[in-house]
């Protein structure tokens, strides 16, 4: 509203095919798509897609160019990758989502960058399938939960799709594989990744890189790391939907027995 009042370019909500969607429509449609969800179930997931300064420069020179590029990326790359990773035979039209582009975000260097917030419904458009990107299951064929979600695969698809769409030449240190390996890999894996980095002609001591790694990777604000704010790189913190469902049912049985 402040941008509109000042006569500055602003964006409304958007989905797969439409722009300028009103907030009231977003609220109504997301709130209505909750059939058969339990009280403890998430009704939607919020995803933050946040390009770095160098990525934004590749997306366009003006806010309008960058905003249009962001919507193109969400529609052509991110949502298709998100859908595919559920392994439930879904297509992009089956996902209920809305995006909102913001132009102001404070960083450590006090600069502002365009970013996008996505609201993705827990249920598909038909209201029949529950979709959780936080499950630990990976393309399961048997059991209560069919399909699953591969977050690491999503990160890589989001990164590769961005680079292909915008012709972005990504440095090794900007890649998901590099940051994930250096934060969560074994010592051998980290040494191997360090060798790849050094073979590119950049000389930096391994101990020095290890000391600064957490800070560096946290500040790599490319599309992949931004997704990591919702979907953590470290699988130790994953939310196991199957386990949570079992515990809810077990608790309900104990309550019914009066235990």
Identify the notable features of this structure and list them briefly.
single chain; 259 residues; alpha+beta; four-stranded antiparallel beta sheet; globular
Helix share, percent: 40-55%
Spans where pLDDT lies below 50 across 5 or more residues: 201-216, 224-248
The total strand number stands at 4
Give me the side-by-side strand order of the main sheet: 1-3-4-2
What portion of the residues fall into strands of 2 or more residues?
A: 5-15%
Q: Given the structure, what is the number of helices?
A: 10
Largest sheet report:
4 strands, antiparallel
Kindly name the structural category. alpha+beta
Mean of the pLDDT scores? Answer: 75
Q: What is Rg?
A: 20 Å
**What is the first-to-last residue Cα distance?**
54 Å
Order of helices and strands: HEHEHHEEHHHHHH
Structure, explained:
This protein is of the alpha+beta class. The chain has a domain at 2-169. Helices cover 45% and strands 10% of the residues. The chain has helices spanning 2-5, 23-32, 53-59, 63-84, 151-166, 176-184, 187-199, 206-219, 223-227, 241-257, and strands at 13-14, 44-49, 95-102, 115-124. The longest helix is centred in the N-terminal third of the chain and has 22 residues, at 63-84. The protein is globular, with a radius of gyration of 20 Å. The chain starts with a helix and ends with a helix. The model is unreliable at 201-216 and 224-248 (pLDDT under 50).
């Amino acid at each position: 509203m402040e941008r509109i009042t000042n006569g500055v370019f602003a964006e409304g909500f958007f989905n797969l095919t439409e722009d300028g969607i009103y907030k009231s429509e977003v609220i109504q449609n997301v709130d209505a798509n909750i059939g058969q969800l339990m009280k403890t179930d998430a009704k939607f997931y919020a995803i933050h897609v946040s390009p770095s300064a160098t990525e934004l420069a590749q997306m366009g020179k003006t806010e309008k160019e960058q905003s249009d590029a962001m919507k193109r990326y969400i529609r052509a790359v991110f949502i298709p990758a998100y859908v595919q990773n559920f392994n439930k035979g879904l297509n992009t039209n089956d996902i209920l989502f809305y995006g909102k582009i913001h132009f102001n975000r404070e960083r450590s260097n006090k600069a502002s960058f365009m970013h996008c917030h996505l609201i993705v419904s827990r249920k598909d458009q038909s209201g029949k399938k529950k979709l959780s990107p936080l499950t630990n299951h990976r393309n399961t064929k048997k059991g209560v939960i069919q399909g699953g979600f591969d977050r690491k695969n999503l990160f890589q698809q989001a990164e590769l799709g961005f680079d292909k769409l915008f012709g972005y030449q990504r440095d090794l240190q900007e890649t998901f594989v590099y940051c994930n390996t250096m934060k969560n890999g074994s010592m051998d894996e980290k040494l191997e990744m360090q060798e790849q980095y050094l073979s590119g002609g950049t000389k930096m001591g391994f101990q020095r890189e290890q000391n600064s790694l957490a800070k560096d990777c946290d500040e790599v604000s490319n599309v992949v790391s931004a997704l990591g704010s919702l979907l953590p790189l470290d699988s130790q913190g994953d939310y196991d939907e199957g386990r949570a469902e079992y515990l809810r049912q077990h608790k309900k049985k104990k309550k019914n027995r009066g235990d």
